Amino acid sequence: MPKDDFTMTQAQSSKLPSSSALPSIPMKSNIGGVNRTCHAAVLESFREPLCAREFSVPERASQGEILVKTEMAGICGTDVHLWKGELPIRLPVILGHETVGTIVSLGEGVEKDWTGADLRVGDRITWNSTTSCGQCYYCAVKRQPTRCPQRRAYGIGYPCDQAPYLLGGYAEYHVLMPRATTFRLPDELATETLIGAGCGLLTAIHGIERTGLEWGDVVVIQGSGTVGISALAVARAAGAARVLVIGGPRSRLDSALIFGADAALDIDAVPGSRERIEWVRRETGGYGADAVIECVGHPGAVVEGMEMCRDGGKYLILGHYCDAGSVLWNPHIVTRKQLQVFGSWSSEPRHLKSAIDFLVRDGARFPFGKLVTHRYGLRDAQKALETTASWQCGKCVLVPGEG
Known about the structure:
Layout: E1 14-15, E2 30-31, E3 34-35, E4 37-43, E5 51-56, E6 66-74, H1 77-83, E7 93-94, E8 99-106, E9 124-127, E10 130-131, H2 137-141, E11 152-153, E12 173-176, E13 182-184, H3 191-211, E14 218-222, H4 226-237, E15 242-247, H5 250-258, E16 263-266, H6 273-283, E17 289-294, H7 299-308, E18 309-317, H8 332-337, E19 340-343, H9 349-362, E20 372-376, H10 381-389, E21 395-398
Parallel strand pairs: 14-15, 14-17, 15-16, 17-18, 18-19, 20-21
Antiparallel strand pairs: 1-5, 2-3, 4-5, 4-7, 6-8, 6-12, 6-21, 8-9, 9-13, 10-11
């Protein structure tokens, strides 16, 4: 994206246009190679187009902080929910919680990443989108840091109307605050591979870890988005003998087959719940699956998925990050089938470490980079968001230097 394509100042903003024909302003000045100002796509009103804003860039990182130049940011389904106002967050906010960038300044006291590897200016890094306090009842006693009351997420929980402002991936620069859990990326791991997997891979690793899949299990995945494809890959790597995927559109099911699904059912071709349940039973010898993993986010899928489990099976609810509403269901299903029902929320730093190791080790087998079908410059962030919302892509990414 040409640096002179924006016309906004901090006292002035405009909706991000779909056209590339924008008036120009002089090139931004810089301090030691770091621009004095940068641009970001800001969510100011729910269900309204993102706004182009200009922000001051810190001359250097403050104590405990890291200043990063954004290389690529993923458009997550959660970003769509945020844009639609389906999560209670305070605006304005710079969206984007799946990000890779290059260190341009290290604050005093920041020397190593979460694994203990040295950090230097110029290193390519990623980071957990969330931070927890580490000291509360859930962090220290119950070891459930994803339930920490102080937990906040970049691109979600930090408004951009207060310092340090640049706390989301839809921007040219990103500030990582003290206690951020960073990871220096190995050269052999392509940025597009990591962003293609996105937070969906971390979510799947955490959920399947909690469920405890066993070697040789038959698994059904409800949903063929990034979380569903990630759950498929993790289940395969965990030793699942057979994996069935139910979802759509057809292009996503084709990706599921590439990632190792034994069979895929298109919900558009088989719209009836009863017919889909019968398909699972036929594919599993009449018993149902050892484990069913919900990656859809629709309440009705839960009722349907429980019936796809074999007696004594497991059901994992993974796709309901937002409150999509209630659904009528009969608890007798759980007792009659002796089901184990699990829930999983977000992820921990160790899951990001596992995801990086997984992608380095098994990236050829599970080509997450190929899920990236649409690349946009920062000026087209709204278009990227709408493309994701309409299911017209595999994975959309923002590359601030393009467009």
